[in-house]
């Protein structure tokens, strides 16, 4: 039984990298083997196995400290340890998340444990996750392209709903981007060589007016949470392909650019709420990706703005169906030197309650250089000298 785990940074700018292989032998002993880099040799690190790799309500399930270690002077650590976990059954580590943390509890990187491609001539890897009902998948770039974003999945009455948002897509695609589920959740060496065969072709990623990649597959029977099904996706990889076509539109080639492994998400959240707020952040600040039956009017109401201001921020007929595209609901504004949130709100005539609705309920902790979302109230707005912008 084999699992694979490829670490990705918790936030941009972090340099911790590496991968691990989890192997369960015939006698039930499970070992963790691999290499981690980009570490500080003066620091102490921990590897923690977490049941739910993402959570809306901070319910991460069971957490197990697997290992405490230090790095060499070169910043590398060779990992070889025996674990008290398995790769099958109710305690399976497949689809769980490994956290790499510094001694202060700061998470540097994480990975989802996927079903690895069989090794040493074996034809079968019998590793399986336990049953889950919510899943997430964080995109990891494995080509010379930096792609961010991810996917979430939950059951519906008639199948699976799979939603995704992918940012920083290359603009050179002539045939669009396709999403495919593969046999194994294994890119431990940083390549696509071990993801196996395509299990399901899940169609096209729609790229909108802001170059945001949006995906929404509703009531799909092509994939399932059933761990015994060949199309069960937990612990397997979703690969994003850049497609090319000839001048007359004939499909020519597909090249993989990014991938992710489906991990377990906290299950105790309503499916409708999960479908809306479980997604990765929007690609552009102060934007909302429109869903079915939404309009500029509903977006304006959601964020405490008026529809004409929202329309002015976006192009086109305000009565058109914008489903699947991203729209600005407010102006992105970068806090300048000498400004505070209070002075910004005064300048633009905004109430703190309205500002909170536009900024994920945040009203504090902003610093110079942060981007915030602003919708001026022109009757109360003032210029730099404090004079009213509009005569009342």
Question: What would your notes on this structure say?
Answer:
The protein is mainly beta and 392 residues long. The protein is 9% helix and 36% strand. The chain has 5 helices and 24 strands. Strand 8 (97-102) and strand 9 (107-112) form a beta hairpin. It is globular, with a radius of gyration of 23 Å.
What is Rg?
23 Å
- How are the strands of the biggest sheet laid out side by side? 12-19-18-15-16-17-14-13-11-20
Largest sheet: 10 strands, antiparallel
The share of residues in helices is: under 10%
Helix-and-strand structural type: mainly beta
What order do the helices and strands follow? EEEEEEEEEEEEEEEEEEEEHEHHEEHHE
Number of strand segments:
24
Note the total helix count: 5
Strand content: 35-45%
Name its key features.
five-stranded antiparallel β-sheet, single chain, mainly beta, 392 residues
Give the SSE map:
Blueprint: E1 2-6, E2 8-9, E3 17-24, E4 30-37, E5 44-50, E6 63-70, E7 77-83, E8 97-102, E9 107-112, E10 114-115, E11 135-138, E12 140-141, E13 148-156, E14 159-167, E15 177-182, E16 198-207, E17 213-220, E18 237-245, E19 251-261, E20 263-264, H1 271-277, E21 287-289, H2 296-303, H3 307-313, E22 326-328, E23 331-334, H4 341-348, H5 352-358, E24 371-374
Antiparallel strand pairs: 1-3, 1-10, 2-9, 3-4, 4-7, 5-6, 5-8, 8-9, 11-13, 11-20, 12-19, 13-14, 14-17, 15-16, 15-18, 16-17, 18-19, 21-22, 23-24
Helix pairs in contact: 2-3
């Amino acid at each position: 039984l084999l699992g694979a785990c490829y670490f990705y940074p918790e936030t941009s700018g972090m340099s911790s990298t590496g991968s691990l292989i989890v192997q369960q032998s015939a006698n039930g002993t499970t070992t963790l083997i691999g290499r981690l880099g980009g570490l500080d040799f003066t620091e102490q690190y921990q590897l923690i196995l977490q049941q739910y790799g993402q959570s809306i309500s901070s319910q991460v399930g069971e957490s197990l400290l697997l290992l405490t270690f230090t790095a060499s002077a070169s910043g590398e650590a060779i990992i070889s340890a025996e674990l008290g976990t398995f790769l099958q059954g109710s305690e399976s580590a497949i689809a769980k998340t490994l956290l790499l943390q510094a001694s202060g509890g700061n998470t540097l990187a994480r990975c989802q444990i996927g079903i690895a491609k069989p090794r040493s001539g074996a034809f079968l890897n019998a590793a399986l996750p336990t049953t889950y009902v919510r899943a997430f998948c964080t995109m990891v770039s494995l080509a010379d392209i930096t792609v961010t974003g991810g996917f979430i999945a939950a059951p519906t009455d008639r199948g699976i709903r799979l939603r995704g948002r992918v940012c920083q897509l290359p603009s050179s695609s002539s045939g669009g981007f396709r999403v495919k589920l593969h046999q194994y959740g294994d890119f431990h060496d940083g390549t696509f060589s071990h993801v196996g065969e395509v299990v399901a072709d899940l169609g096209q990623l729609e790229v909108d007016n802001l170059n945001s990649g949006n995906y929404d597959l509703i009531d799909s029977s092509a994939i399932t949470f059933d761990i015994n099904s060949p199309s069960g996706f937990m612990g397997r990889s979703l690969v994003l392909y850049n497609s090319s076509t000839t001048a007359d539109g004939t499909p020519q080639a597909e090249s993989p650019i990014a991938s992710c492994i489906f991990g377990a998400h906290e299950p105790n959240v309503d499916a409708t709420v999960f479908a809306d707020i479980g997604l990765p952040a929007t690609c552009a600040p102060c934007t909302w990706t429109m869903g079915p039956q939404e309009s500029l009017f509903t977006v304006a109401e959601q964020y405490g703005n008026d529809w004409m201001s929202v329309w002015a921020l976006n192009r086109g007929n305000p009565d058109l169906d914008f489903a699947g595209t991203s729209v600005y609901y407010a102006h992105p504004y970068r806090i300048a030197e000498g400004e505070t949130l209070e002075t910004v709100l005064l300048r633009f005539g905004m109430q703190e309650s309205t500002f909170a609705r536009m900024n994920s309920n945040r009203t504090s902790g902003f610093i110079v250089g942060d981007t915030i979302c602003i919708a001026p109230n022109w009757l109360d707005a003032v210029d730099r000298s404090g004079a009213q912008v509009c005569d009342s």
